[in-house]
Design brief:
270 residues; alpha+beta; 3-stranded antiparallel beta sheet; 8 helices
Length: 270
Amino acid sequence: RGVQTTAAMRSAYSPRSERHERPWNMGLVIVPQQMAYVVERFGKFRKVLEPGLNIVIPIVDNIAYLHSLKEEAIPIPNQMAITSDNVTLQIDGVLYTRIMDPYKASYGVTDALFAISQLAQTTMRSELGKMSLDQTFKDRDALNLAIVTSIQAAAANWGVEALRYEIRDIQAPKSIKESMDKQAEAERRKRAAILDSEAEQLSEINVAEGRKRAQVLASEAALQERINAAKGEAIAITAVAEATAKGIECLATAIRRDGGGDAVSLRLAE
């Protein structure tokens, strides 16, 4: 089965010269945009043809390799990996690459894309072995970045740049999935219980705050009532005192008048 899988992958990622039809060398060669043609002269590297019209010598020059310079997505097939806490996962992804140096892509490795796909698989397993199961699901971005960083050094020698890696799917064993579902359900129940208790606590605080406010208002009303009563009593006392003083003043004025003393004596005699 492993031999069949490898053969299928080699078919999918065959060399560029096989995946693109080589043009006939008639002396004039038109290279499409975002393509690079590697020319050999008598079996030795000569040059890389740029997009546009190029002149090559028939028979002497041979277009040995054709490379697309576009960004290309390489599917990384489903494979098994073991996390640091000994959980076996089925994982697959997509690696996005682009050929930056047609010379290295032609002579640095037999098939650059097949080689980088194999490297991506081994790197994925290696990086997953450094992470726990929970980290694998939570830190996908960190895992993707770690895989790309690990691939870059080898890919540079092959003239290929690893742009990014994206995990498509992570499948855990059935028993682990059931445990995770139970854990998630317990977490949801816990959050619901916390929310209920917080709501009940907030309700009690509101009731207590209302009672406190009512007591404050009642005490302020009683205080204002006493203040108003005291003010009324003070006004009444002042009025009585003013009336008494006015009466005494009138009496004194009457005594000082002519005949006032006789009137007083007569009043006293009565």
